[in-house]
Amino acid sequence: MKSLFYLVVTMVVIIACTNEEFDANSEVKKEEVKTKIASLAEKYDVNIDFFEINPSEKTENEMSLEEIEELFRDIKQLREHPVELKMYKDKEENGCMFYSTKEQKPSVPLAKTRSEIYSFSDWIWNLTWFSVTLIEDNKNVTVMTDITGLSVYTYSQSYASGYVSGNSISFNSTGKIKATITQVVGFNLSYVINSSGTYDKSAGKGSVTVSAY
Predict the structure, then answer these.
(1) Coil, strand or helix: which one is 135?
(2) In angstroms, rounded to a whole number, what is the distance separating the alpha carbons of residues 129 and 122?
């Protein structure tokens, strides 16, 4: 019985020591990954805020260090080199660019005006679309922008304006992208997206410039 008792005690001690060693190794790995992510954020000048996560909980926002670096690189690239996207009416370019126009019935019965919607989308960076919709109604223009793609993003437009001069529509907007990303540790990041452009209705083409800061 004594032998069995000592065996049980020994096993408990071994398991406890193993768990402590596992926890210590997990903490070391967490700190190593956190240091690497912080170093990447500094390298690409991206502001992030870390938060604690439960290692046993899997999330949809997990990214490898390589994917995180690619994301940071895209942000830096867009901040330093704004992207100009060409807009065309009912024309595809490289299989991913289109611009369409369609008449809409008046939303108010017996309205004397008609609305036209100009909708455009294109790749802005890896797996991410930038979209802008212009709604013209009796020389008034409503501007709506959106950024979609990776599930880690949420985009909200905070400001937009547009006006018509002859056949030309000019517009600009400001919005913010927020992302929550997890690895061994989690972090949040956010940055502002600006866009401005013009569209010539008679020529059926235009352009929009997108930048980040």
Answers:
(1) strand
(2) 6
Torsion of the alpha carbons at 32, 37, 41 and 42, rounded to the nearest 10: 10
Average pLDDT over residues 172-195: 88
Q: What's this model's pTM, rounded to 2 decimal places? A: 0.71
Sign of CA dihedral 194, 206, 164, 156: negative
Q: Please say whether the beta carbons of 141 and 169 come within 8 A.
A: yes
Count other C-beta atoms under 10 Å from residue 100's C-beta. Answer: 13
User: Of 105, 172, 122, 181, nearest to 144 (Cα)?
Assistant: 172
Type of residue numbered 54: N
- The runs of H, that is alpha helices, within the chain are 2-43, 65-80
Q: Is residue 85 within 8 Å of 207, Cβ to Cβ?
A: yes
Angle, helices 65-80/2-43, rounded to nearest 10 degrees: 20
Question: Do the beta carbons of residue 160 and residue 143 sit within 8 Å?
Answer: yes
Q: Are 131 and 119 in contact (CB under 8 A)?
A: yes
| pLDDT band per the 50, 70, 90 thresholds, residue 98 | very low
